[in-house]
Specification:
- With 405 residues, the protein is of the alpha+beta class.
- The chain has helices at 2-10, 16-32, 35-43, 48-55, 59-65, 68-77, 106-117, 315-318, 376-380, 400-404; strands spanning 82-87, 95-98, 124-129, 132-137, 145-150, 157-159, 174-179, 189-197, 200-209, 212-213, 217-218, 222-223, 230-236, 239-244, 248-253, 258-263, 274-278, 284-290, 293-299, 308-314, 337-342, 348-353, 358-363, 368-374, 384-388.
- Helix 4 packs antiparallel against helix 5.
- The longest helix has 17 residues, at 16-32.
- The radius of gyration is 27 Å and the shape is globular.
Length: 405
């Protein structure tokens, strides 16, 4: 009896801190060891930068984080952040007009800004898509050249070969270039020439893929009911959408080289406050401003005759925390809200409060509004392109030896 008692006295009691630590470690292991719970944690990370850092923990986390299904869910919660706008001022090289960023994205913004600052005075950014810049160097009118620059690898430019010969008979043709969505070929793009003369429209175009331009194709002549001017153009899938000044959108189907017309929604705002964006599957988003409201319309593409109003947003309510002092412009003809840019799939919108000059960035999914600039339209006009985080995130690749262990 005394021997048993002595043994108990000789064994020190287990510290409470060690017990608590062991319990906590067991709980953490039970959570992080469960794929479903770990996925829910990864979905709640604030940005793709943190997402990539989480993937570096171990091979299992990398496998989960790089799963396409999880990436789709993550993007729905956290659309790619706009780092700033690519802008061109007179007599200066293109630059990044930066937006305020959280600390984890500051390095990405600096990298994008550095890629733009090394361009020359005569260079002009004509398109920006998912980490790629399409840059025009005018030179002499007949010697203008184009190159694709990576925002991730400054100085790694890829020059485009000269475009094939296009017939320029029949009037003044306007030439424009658009980057294609092609992950395997960063230089893939479209060269489009449009002619809109009085009540007729025609187009010629060629695709650049794998460094070779396709033979030029010429569209059929489109007869318009009245004289039209082509404004903003958007490449989405195999179609080019062009806003006209006659309350319609001219659509060029690149697969059939034919034109068609889509009427704007009834009651759509002024053309100056209209912008459109690519829809995820097919069709088109249109954002307009009426008074102090933003409206989001969806046209679903082939076979659809009607626009669907999918959202209406009160700008004054969304911007209440900004303490805006002036809402009504002095000029009665100016709209109080003007749409500047819209992101793909209508994930974000950049708009300007005309009276105060405040430029706002809104994520349409949660309607969170941030003040990002001032007097943007006055400074740069419509010649600005949003520079966003690259999507999907670039994950490290495992070598064969790592995959086996």
């Amino acid at each position: 009896m005394s021997g048993t008692k002595r043994k108990r006295e000789e064994q020190p009691p287990e510290p409470a801190a060690a017990t608590a630590a062991a319990v906590a470690a067991a709980l953490i292991a039970s959570v992080l060891g469960n794929d479903d719970l770990l996925i829910e944690i990864l979905l709640r990370l604030g940005s793709p930068a943190w997402f990539v850092r989480a993937a570096l923990v171990c091979r299992r986390w990398l496998r989960l984080a790089s799963d396409p299904a999880l990436l789709r869910r993550f993007r729905a919660r956290h659309p790619p952040r706009v780092l700033g706008l690519s802008v061109c001022e007179a007599y200066s090289s293109p630059k990044l007009f930066p937006f305020p960023q959280p600390p984890d994205l500051a390095a990405a913004a600096r990298l994008a800004g550095g890629a733009l600052e090394t361009l020359g005075r005569e260079d002009w950014v004509v398109d920006c898509r998912n980490g790629r810049l399409l840059v025009q160097n005018p030179g002499d009118w007949v010697d203008e050249t184009y190159a694709v620059r990576s925002l991730l690898h400054a100085g790694r430019d890829e020059d485009l070969p000269p475009t094939p010969y296009f017939s320029v008979a029949g009037g003044t043709w306007r030439i424009e270039y658009f980057l294609l969505e092609d992950d395997d070929d960063p230089t893939s793009c479209l060269c489009l020439r449009t002619l809109c003369s009085r009540t007729k429209a025609r187009a010629q175009f060629s695709f650049l893929r794998s460094g070779v331009w396709s033979a030029p194709r010429r569209s059929a002549l489109m007869e318009l009911s009245c004289e039209a001017k082509l404004r903003h153009k958007l490449l989405s899938g195999t179609k080019i959408y062009m806003i006209t000044n006659v309350r319609s959108i001219l659509v060029l189907d690149l697969s059939t080289a034919t034109f068609s017309l889509v009427k704007l929604p009834d009651g759509a705002g002024r053309r100056r406050s209209l912008r459109f964006a690519r829809a995820q599957q097919s069709g088109l988003y249109l954002i307009d401003a009426i008074g102090y409201k933003l409206r989001v319309w969806l046209w679903r593409g082939d076979g659809a005759e009607q626009w669907e109003l999918v959202d209406t947003i009160s700008v004054r309510k969304a911007c209440d925390h900004l303490n805006v002092r002036r809402w009504k412009p002095d000029d009665s003809q100016s709209p109080p809200v003007q749409v500047v840019l819209v992101g793909d799939n209508a994930e974000f919108v950049i708009f300007e409060l005309v009276a105060s000059g405040i430029v706002c960035y809104m994520q349409l999914g949660n309607r969170v509004v941030e003040k990002v600039a001032w007097r943007l339209l006055e400074k740069f006009g419509p010649y600005a392109h949003p520079v966003t985080m690259v999507w999907p995130p670039i994950f490290p690749k495992l070598d064969k030896a790592s995959e086996e262990h």
